[in-house]
Amino acid sequence: MNAPNPNAVAAFEQGMARFWHPVGLASELVDRPLAVELLGRRLALARLGGTVVAFDDLCRHFGAALSIGEIVDDCLRCAYHGWTYDRSGTVVDIPARRGVAIPREAKVACYGAREAYGLVWVCLEPEPAADLPAYPEFAADSFVKTAYRVYEVWDAAATRIVMAALDDTHFPWVHPGLLGDRAHPEPPDHRASVEGDHVVAAYSVEQPANVSLGSPEGATGLVTVTYTNHVYPSTIRLQKEAPGGNFVLFQTMQPLAYNRSRIFLQVARDFDRDPARDETYLVFEDVIQSQDQPVVESQRPWLLPPLSSRLMLYVRPADLPLITYQRWLEGLGIPQV
Ligand code: FES
Ligand SMILES: [Fe+2]
Question: What class does CATH assign to 136-331?
Answer without folding.
Answer: alpha beta
